[in-house]
Every structure is written in structure tokens, then in C-alpha cells.
Amino acid sequence: MPHRIETPLWFFNIVAFGVSTVANVQHQSAVNFIPATPPPHSDILNYWTTWYVQNYPGNKPIAAAALGDPWLFNKSASPGHPGGGWATNFFLHARSDLKLVLDNAWSPVPFGFENQFQLAQARWPSEYSTDWAKSQHNLVDRLEAIGWGGLGLWHHAVTLSNASGSGTLTSQLAQLGAAGVLHVKVDGTDVANGNVTRCAKDSGSGVIIEHKLASGKGPVNGDIHQDGRASFDYIQRLSNLLARTDVLRTDDIICQMSVPTCLERMSRVLAYVSTNLTDGPAITGARGVVAPQDEAYLAAGLSGALAAMRHPLPQLVGDTRLNGNRNLSRRIDEITRTVMWNRLVPPTGAWDYPTSAAGQTLVDPTPLTDVMTLTADDTWYKAATGKPIFQGAPSRTARGLPQLPTVVATDARYPHVAPFVVASKAPNGGLAVAALGRTLEEYHGWIMPRANVTLHAGDGTTQMTLPVVPTAPTPLALAGLFGQFAAVEIVWDKVPWTSSASVRVYMQDLCGTTATDVTSLVSWAAPTALHIPGTVIDTVGASSQTNGDISDPGVLIAVTHNV
């Protein structure tokens, strides 16, 4: 379980802010709804990858040259290694539920089939063996010893066999899985037939295969000087790739436009698949989970996987990966909250839902469009600098729910501006809703407008299959609320309780270990309509916030018998 510690020394330039109090609510010290242990490593789809921090301007050397033992395992900062070892110091509260994926430059250059999974000896002297599988096993052991949920590898040019055909990728993946490497991030190749996925399934190794497919427009969707919407052809090609992989990552993106870019791809792919590819994946066993890059609350809200890339080193001018006033380097608790939610409601594949209306993804045909003028310090993509660029996405998305959420903009700071809102009901019965911020030129960048959001939850009497948590009463209903809201109302068609007086309502910061009884702070318009003020979400949702972190709230709310 997550626990709080002092802000690390390498976070020195962040000014700690006051954490909200919960003086008006009653803690129940014995109640904790989050399972105490992470899932088995073979079940972990969420990860953090090193690419953004490899490109951090403080590194000397930088990018592909910045990877190896010192960068991962140093204990303290040193010249050229700001923050010390990334594996040692980053994501202390979330790492048990994350794989660490090594990005570009972990392997020897050049490489061929025989050594395509070998570690570069000069970079990994402590783990290297002439037996490549032993090298990987050594690195897995070292990461797991400090609490990580496993190891994954980026790979750009996977070779299927050697020239004679005596060695195959299938046999290599079996060895890789036996060594404990359970995630391969295939970057930009193998997108037509999913051959790497087939080999992984044939190997029986349990190795998760991930793919991506660039838009052909750079790290953006559509015409960036018009509406910034992805073409139908691109969505169709992404959907066909989803049917041939375990994880589809919505890369590439521009940091300040990440929400609409990733949301557009994720929501429209899920909608397309749920109505057009209902016969199941093209490769037996392919998981078909969408990972909206680093957008943690988008992943939580639509039951996707998390491909985290942010890191906690202070933002620097000229960092083209992490920039803008959203300040993702100070939003690390969002990662923790997302993976803790996934202990209860794991990421869901496109074919994990029933092939009926209950499993469809609904998207609002009316988009919201973000707009911002970027500079060369904001992105490596030169075509997006110097003039306003646009990225649009559906204003509302619902997965596994009977209808779209209702959203009413109420924030006087940003008149008539609504957030993007996504919601889902997972196959195990867990509900989720997330309000996602906007990037708008007129407000000088990132804003988080509040709205009244109504989640239409459908039949609340269907059997839930949540994990059994001995430290909490069994929920009659469970929902994750992510982001800032004016208020949230959850409306069911029918419920398993007879009156609001017969139930108790708990709320828990997903960064914490103690739930709060908020029965007296919420209200019921009817036994089927629960109203939750945004102020309560803000208060409880900051109760376990790390000092210096500015993440938006992420809480679970549980309705239980009143006993």
C-alpha cells in the first residue's frame, strides 16, 4: 500500500503547499477499501518508461546516451545525473504496481537476431552476462528488489528468426518471460500483422506486447490549423492494430496538447471497435487494451492502461517533453491514485465487455477543441510552433454505460468552458468518471474548469465481482472520481438498497490507506440518486497528498450497508 514520506532532496525547487484538512469529516481508521497487495507481476499492464527523463535537459549526456546502471541505480544526484537513480528514487508509492520499461539505448548497437534482447555491456556492467537471458534476469532481480513490479523493454526492430530459421522469436520470448521480462514495447514496426503478438502467444510466456501507430501528421491529429480531428482512416487503422496487440499506446503527442490528442484516439477507437469489430481480436489471446500515454486520469476514467512518462524532476526551459503550466512533474500522485484504483478495477480490454449495447463506447458528436501557440521550447515538432494549433476530441465519452454523462459548465472563472468528461462501468461493476482539463490560448494554457457532472450508471443491482478486501465492508456500489468537479451525481436505474437511510457512504483518497465516512456530507435526491459536492471530493482527495504535489483529486466512493 502507498505510504507517505518526505519530499526527496532532488525535489528541492518545489515549494511545499498546505494540504487540505478534513476537520469536518470522521475518519474510520479500520476501513480501507484498497487491496493491500499489488497484482501479480504477470497481470500488471501499467508502466513507467524512461524516455522523457532520458531527454531531461539536466542530463549529461542526454537522450539515447542517458541510460544504464548509474541513471537507474545511483542513490543521490551527481553531475549529469540529476535526481540520482530513477529506479531508486522515483515513484516510491506507485512502483509496486508499475513495470519499469527501458526505452531507447538499453541494447548493443548494432544488434542482430541472436542478441536483440541482450543488454549493452558497457551500460549494464553489473547485470551483463554472455547469456542474454541471464543479463535480463539479473536486471529484473535488481528492480524487483527495490520494489518495482517488473521490467519491460522498448524495441524498434524486432527480428522474427535468424537466417537459417533455427532460432525463432517465439523461443526467445519464452526465454524472456522466464527471465521475468514481461512487457515488450514495439515502437512503430509490426503494425500490419501483429507477428510479435502471435509469437508471444505461441510462446506461452505471458509477455505483454505493446504497439503504436503514428498518425502520419506528426505527434498530432488531423489539420492542426483547423479542427485537429483524427481522420476516419487513421482511427480504423488504429482499431485494426488494437485487434492484434495486447496494449495500444496513443503515441506520439505534444505535451501541452496531450489530453485532446490521446482522448480523440482512445475514445474513437473504442467506439469503432465496439460496433465494428465485435467478433473479437484478430489474434487469439490479444488483450486489446488502450493506453492513453501519460494521461493517468483518462486511463482511469475509460478503464485503460497507463503508459506513464512524466517524472518528478523540476521542469526546465527547453524540455520539449514536459512543459507548460500544467506542470506534470508536480503531479506524481495522479500516477499513484490511478494504479491503486486499478487494484480494484483493472484495465479493461476492448473485448472484455459483452458484445451488446452494454459493452459499447459512446462518444459525443460535438467536440471540444483546445488551442495554443507553442514555441521551439515546447515541442520538437517544428510544424506546430509559432502559430495557434488546434486539437479536438469528443466532449463526452462513456464506456459500458447506457448513456453519456450530463455535463453543465459552472465555473465563473471560465465562463461557458466545460472540461472533457469520460466515464465507464467496468465488467466487474466498478464505475469511474474523470474530468480532464483544457489548454486554451485565452487563458494562457492549462485550466481545470469545474462542472456539474451526472453519471448515468444503469442497473445498480447487477452482481459486482470486485476483489475481497478484509479491511472494508463489501461495497454495494463503487466509483472512482478523478479530477475537479463542482459536483458529481450518480444516478442508477435501480439499486440493491431500499432507502438512503439504509446505507453508509465512504470516500477514500486513492493515495491513502484510510476511508472517511462522508454519509452526512453527501445527499440523496432519491434512493437511486447520490449527490456528491465537489468540495468534499477536494477535501478528502487531498487528505493524503504528497507535500509539494499539485495533482487533482482521485478518490473512490463506496456505498455500503449501514451497519
Can you tag this structure with a few keywords?
563 residues, nine-stranded mixed sheet, globular, alpha/beta, single chain
| Order of the strands making up the biggest sheet | 1-23-22-26-20-16-15-13-10
Radius of gyration: 23 Å
- From the N-terminal CA to the C-terminal CA, the straight-line distance is 26 Å
Strand content: 15-25%
Q: How many E-type strands?
A: 26
Low-confidence stretches: 1-28
Total DSSP helices: 11
Characterise the protein shown here.
This protein has 563 residues and is an alpha/beta fold. The protein is built from 11 helices and 26 strands. It has a 9-stranded mixed sheet with strand order 1-23-22-26-20-16-15-13-10, with helices on both faces. The model is unreliable at 1-28 (pLDDT under 50).
Task: Tell me the layout of helices and strands.
Blueprint: E1 26-28, E2 47-49, H1 51-54, H2 69-73, H3 86-89, E3 99-102, H4 132-145, E4 151-155, H5 169-178, E5 181-186, H6 195-203, E6 208-212, H7 232-242, E7 247-249, H8 258-276, E8 289-291, H9 296-301, E9 307-308, H10 333-344, E10 361-363, E11 367-373, E12 388-394, E13 396-399, E14 406-409, E15 420-425, E16 431-436, E17 438-440, E18 445-447, E19 451-459, E20 477-482, E21 487-494, E22 503-509, E23 515-517, E24 523-526, E25 529-533, H11 534-541, E26 554-561
Parallel strand pairs: 2-3, 2-9, 3-4, 4-5, 5-6, 6-7, 7-8, 13-15, 16-20, 19-21
Antiparallel strand pairs: 1-23, 10-13, 11-12, 14-19, 15-16, 17-18, 20-26, 21-25, 22-23, 22-26, 24-25
Helix pairs in contact: 5-6, 7-8
Quick synopsis:
This protein is α/β, with parallel strands linked by helices. It is built from 11 helices and 26 strands.
